[in-house]
Amino acid sequence: MTHLALWLAQTQFFISLSFMLLFLLLELGLAWALAFFKLRALAGNEQWTHAYRFWVRVFALAFILAFASAVPVMIQFGSLWPALLERMGNVASPLLAGSVLTIFLFKSCLVGAMLFGQRNMPRRLHGGLVVSVAVGVTLAAMSPIMLFSWMRTPAGAIFSDGQYIVTSWASVVFNPSFPWYGMLFLVLASATTALFMSGVSALQSVRRPLLEADKAVFRVAVRASLIALILLGVLVALSGRALADHEPARAAAALGYWHSGPEPSIALVGRGGAQALVEKHAGRWQGVGGMFLARDSSTGHYRGLDQYSGMAPPQGVTFWSLRIAILSGLFMLLLSALATWRLRAHSPDPVALPRWLRKSLSWSIAGAWAMAVAGFAHVSFGAYPYAVSGTVTISEVMANVPVHQLVLGGLGLIVVYGFCMVGFFQLLWHGARYGVVPVARHRGRA
Amino acid sequence: MIEPLALALGLQANAPEFWLPLAFMALFFLVVLAGVVLDGFDIGVGCLSVFAPAALRPRMLALLSPWRDANEFWLFLGIGLFMAAFPHAWGRIMSALYLPVTILAIGTMLRSVGFELRLRAPREQQAYWSRLFGVGSLLTALSHGMLLSLIAVGYAGSADLVWFVLFTAGCAVAAYSLLGAAWLIMREAGELRARAVFWGRRCVRWAAAGAVGVSVALALGNPGIFLKWGGSASGSAVVALWLSMLAAFVCIELCLQRMINSSHRNTALPFILTLLVFVMTFVGLAYSFFPYLVLDELTIWDAAAAADSLQLVFIGVVVALPIALAFNIRVYWRMFGLSLPPEPPTFGR
Lengths: 446, 349
Hints:
- The complex is a heterodimer.
- Chain A is mainly alpha-helical.
- Helices cover 70% and strands 5% of the residues of chain A.
- Chain A contains 14 helices and 6 strands.
- Chain A has helices spanning 3-42, 47-79, 82-116, 123-152, 169-173, 178-207, 212-244, 248-255, 274-279, 315-345, 355-362, 364-381, 394-397, 403-434; strands at residues 157-160, 163-166, 265-269, 283-286, 386-388, 392-393.
- In chain A, the strands form 3 sheets. A two-stranded antiparallel ribbon of chain A has the order 1-2. In chain A, strands 3-4 form a two-stranded antiparallel sheet.
- Chain A starts with a helix and ends in a 12-residue tail after the last helix.
- In chain A, 50% of the residues are buried.
- A two-stranded antiparallel ribbon of chain B has the order 1-2.
- In chain B, helix 2 (16-51) crosses helix 8 and helix 10 (191-221) packs across helix 11 (223-230).
- Chain B is globular and about 80 Å long.
- At the A-B interface, helix 2, helix 3 and helix 14 of A face helix 3, helix 5, helix 6, helix 7 and helix 15 of B.
């Protein structure tokens, strides 16, 4: 297959996956936020019911988009990488089936009742439903992450005769990188959602007077985003250290560490592509970063990108996506720390925050998503050229699809994603500005 | 029938390697059939909504509302099941069908997003979302037709077949529209019913032409299937199936002709007959293909995942199945008949 086709297929799949990821993160975070609102409301504080009423609409929108975009992802999983399931079907099929069945069960039994059945049931039961939806969303997200992490650290299965055969399900499920990717996903979901909520609240506060409930959500969201971002930073550092041994090539590309040697270094910025990127570095931080690099067991030297000739991840994307993610994370950390400090030191009323701060906070919606997409680009392109680390390459499982069809399909998908994204934000702004009216759905009659 | 099949494969009839793929194939067939039939009227009404006058469109979409939650799941379940149970056929089939499945993905996504976002949009934006829903339905119906025609000719999508593929895609739109129209006739009286009768009458012959076209391509393109149809045991069954399809199409046409002028008594009949046609087409297709997934190359046993992986999936399915059944029976309970009971006329005081 030509290089162009491979690039097109990869980009197309990445766009589909990251579109789904954005709404999945929002859905997951909001599910837990709604559970929190509901529990507080049950404890007797009525303003949280108001908060629930608005944010359940955003949850519904995110849920619809995440579910709808799962279908293109599943279809592309087969139409772009046909041989992938032939190789790892024995591992992947129970995990994928588990995810599909969990989504089916909790969507059919719980989400419909949560969204449309609130009036027909006691308050406590509805509260229980909201909590179980949050648990269900988390469970359904876990098995794809399990598969994603297993593809990076394939444990518990042996590769023979062109396909993986499972030897131990326990080690497949708890493969070395699963705890890290699982935790990163959960914390990233809470960070992006908290930032999203504080961004929407900030925008509301610029446009119209806030109710007590909106102010409460604003305060909680700002505080939660600060905590989640700090947690995310710690987790990124810890997982960077833990995963360096499992994904040495990605670690070296992330640091821009070209030549293997006894002394570690981090390239802070770089220009150009491929080798030039690291050779013509503008700033190199010598002597640090050793903890994020893998070491050669015999010589004790740090392993640089020169050890992976031809099998190294694309350096430009891997290098820059991580920096974009970290920079946008730091920027938002600064904003939310500032807002938290002002809420604490000056006035607990978020409307008393200066207008410029609230306007910049509203940009944290874009910042959170940029952070999520860039981080995801880093881990997914960082695994290149492997689909399953060390055994199955992406180019060998790729479909034999003509380039013009790939372009056509990709453009079609991008247009549809654009429509959906625009529609989502239109409805969000409209709801945030003018409030939402409940939607009814009755069984069997219309 | 089971025993000789197992012996031919060199397996015991009660070995999981033998019966698990068979069970999954049966389940997959049921899910696809349910998807085509139950999601079918949904797709059909969506296709018709593009051609309907703007005043009727909101009512058509509102009629679909109670079933959406269940309807949009069949494709998802079908894909998930096929992917999990038959990983060795999955990629091969999907990549051979890249363009139609991408259209299917786009159509499905537009449909579910268009419908649900329309429900939550302010009134002035609703027309936009219902238009997207209609376009998504058309794309989905077209892609189903393309898939069917490519499956019938053994995934060999060459330039000579473009017209056949396009013809079948058009016929699939007609067939879904027929199903949707027949469903509307049953659900709602008044102007919508009168229009649906006209739509149905325009579609019925194209749907029949599509059924014939696919069958002919299936028989001429694959000698194995032609032989299978002509076999002494199955020959009479095939002829009976053909005759009943013909009878069903003729009855639908007659029903629709009478619907406007003389009779409103059997409004459910066209829908039930159209359902029968769809079921017969799919049973025929499944019978022709069994036990192959890729004709003469890949049987369901070649394509299945390893037995212990399948067993895990099977346990999940066994847990999920009762809940799924209960949910679907609950949702689809009031699917037949009028949507709302007719109101008595208001007499002058």
